[in-house]
Amino acid sequence: MTRVLVKLSLALSLSLGLALAARSGVAVAADCTIATKGDSAPAKACAKGGRDAAKKAMKEMVKTAQANGTKFTCENCHKDLEGFELTKNARDDYAKLAAAQKK
């Protein structure tokens, strides 16, 4: 009986570990929907660390732009901050944000 429980416990632990490992790899590849190509900072961050990394890169870009005297917020380009749907002027505003990285 003890052997059965030990084997079951090991099997469950292994299954859970594999599921978590697979999930983390899939999440990075699949959770980005906007910055999926190119050599921009958000695209590179997305490829490396998924949506969370892309979000962090975008926040750094906004912070740098603000330090350089240009006012930007997340809501300028995103209709919502859950799915990150873009506004109609988002692509043009992103070009301005990218230009504001240099002073």
Description of the structure:
The chain is mainly α and 103 residues long. The protein has a domain at 31-99. It is 68% helix and 0% strand. It has four helices and no strands. It has helices at 2-30, 41-67, 74-77, 90-99. Helix 1 (2-30) crosses helix 2 (41-67). The longest helix has 29 residues, at 2-30. Mean pLDDT is 79; it is low at 4-8 and 14-27.
Give keywords.
68% helix; 0% strand; elongated; 103 residues; mainly alpha; 4 helices
Question: Concise description?
Answer:
This protein has 103 residues and is mainly α. The chain has 4 helices and no strands. Helix 1 crosses helix 2 (41-67).
Show the helix and strand layout.
Elements: H1 2-30, H2 41-67, H3 74-77, H4 90-99
Helix pairs in contact: 1-2
**Largest sheet: number of strands, sense, barrel closure:** none
What sort of overall outline do the alpha carbons produce when their principal axes are compared? Answer: elongated
Helix proportion range: 55-70%
Q: Please, how many helices?
A: 4
The rounded Rg comes to 20 Å
Mean pLDDT: 79
Q: What's the helix-strand series?
A: HHHH
**End-to-end CA span:** 71 Å
Number of DSSP-assigned strands: 0
Approximate strand percentage: under 5%
Low-confidence stretches: 4-8, 14-27
**What is the SS-derived class?**
mainly alpha
